[in-house]
User: Fold Extracellular solute-binding protein from Thermostaphylospora chromogena.
Amino acid sequence: MMAQQERPAPSRDDQGGAPKGEETLRTIIGILVAEILGWAASSGPLQPWIRVLLILLLALLGGVLFYYVQGVIWFFTWLARNARKLPGLLGHVLGAFFNVVRHLFSGVAMLSGRSLRAVFCVILLIAATCLIYSFRSWPWAPCPIAWEVRLAASSETAPAVQHAAETFMRDTADWRGCRTANITITAPDSASELRRRLAGGWNATPPHTPGPRPVLWIADSPAEVAQVRDVSSARIGRVETVATSPLVLAMPHATADLITSGLDEPGAFTWAQLINGVRSPRAVLRTHPRTSNVGLLATVGLEESLPGEDRKAERDALEARIGGRVGWAEDVHDVMCRFLDADDASGDRVPAFVMSEQQLYEFNMARSGTGTGSWTRADCAGSAARPGPVPRLRPLYPRGPDGRHIHSLIYQCVPLDWADQPTPPAVSEIVRAFCGHLATALTRLGFRDADGRLPALDSAGELAADAAVAPDWPSDITGTLARAAVPRLGDHVLLAVDVTGSMSNSLNTDGDRLRAATDTAKTLVAHMPGALTTALWTYPAADAEATHEVLAPPAPVRDDGAALAALLDPVQLATDRTDRSLSRLVRAGVEELAGRDGQRVLVVFTDGGGADFDESPLTDTAGVEIVLLTFGGRGCDHPGLAEGTPREGLLCYPVDSDPPDQAVSSLRTYLTVPSGGA
Assistant:
């Protein structure tokens, strides 16, 4: 009997499987393929942890699919067979798709030996290339240069936009913290000045604005965009609304209860009814329409609530009440710092403020000590009274244009492209991404979304979620701007700038005394020129016998101070001229203005220097008001000035390192008179 021959055990191939080594190799290939797909799919601006998570999940899925390749083939075969049972074109399309996937995995299953190793090497090379590309900037390498993205916004909107920009730059940084973009924001102290710069080509015409042009403007209303679009040399891209905020009249609860008598619905009262309801001695404060878009749009709403020539007297009376006590360059934050102090804790003397709902939200958050917006006690200037324990304010929503909606600010992203300075495509992509970020980030700071919906916010119980935002309002702001009173320093104003060598000394901030003086003078002529004439001198003169040199003779200012500002830019120190008597200069200025009618003001920009100032020019000033703005040095502490300061007709104000708009606003408190006209 023949011995039974032992038959070899069947291999894994005979059992329908593959050798263990090939299964492992296929699994690794699956992981690598999935990682490459994950790397490609997450190449957009995703946060690093999301990208890592996506790649890991795809890698796990790829490894499982390639390890159980026979089961995957059977699964897609079953899907293809059943898909064909579906009626019509859908069944054929799905069946074809599942067949393609089945054949793909069948090809993977057929790989073995050398072919499998070759495929593995190719995929490994691709994966290594992707890895090197992803980490082409190693931890020890310097960050690549970030794109510079320049924004423009009003001074009222800029703090919130700056907060959003900081979160955007942080969120879009790579794993090493290298930024894709550096976002800088320009915010002139006047909204009219911002529109003028945009309309005039930014720095293309005098007075030349320092710095490059913005590529994005965050506008406060569609009417503002329309006004600039009609005259600007910039091409305006697709405008996108990112946020809204209704206008409110904010006041203590007790004052609001007296006005509403329990009728609390938004829009229950007009602007006139609410303003007249605030009884004396409480003030109603509104920022200036030419410098503040909040003040401008509130004025538009007030005028719409009292239409027609027959109601002009009512409009003028309301304007006189709300427009007389706020500085030209002050925004809502400045006004609240100036009018809220520790003595107002009871709320008996707290004024009513015209502001946006978002500004009120910031204020009320600051009152509770949990503010995350831009208004804090630290924002108040050192010389201003710091707000004390003032109670939270309550908003009243004036009636809008159609009786249903509320007058609102509508914030829009406005891309700008200058013909002689095109925006790079990469910057345009960043601008689009930032506008999308703004639409989300601003709602966390008290703004409503683009459709007027109020998000869920902490400490927002005072706000009326059912207040409906008026869409595309206002249609025009030109008429209101033309009627807005322009504050004047006087009827005839003479400016004299000290150019002696001591003005080259530095201040506590960057720059020297002369540059601080000319910057303040430019702000002054732009915001508060003479109602009839404004003149510009420098002193001392090159001729020892003369007191000054005339840069601009007395003339009306018709261009918002642009021509005078252009003369101030190139003013240089006269180091060969020594300090001479300030008294001579003041006497010459008084003589120049003495023969003119109306209010006359002489403004001297100086550091006091070594000048000998005595009281002789003050013995007969002929009614001319003398203002000394000092920058560093002994300033108003100069012995001669200290003696002269208490005298009637002389004001000495130490500007030093104060921003120009703050100095001018403070000066206006003492000297300005309102004057109508554009």
About this structure: The CA atoms of residues 152 and 186 lie 5 Å apart.
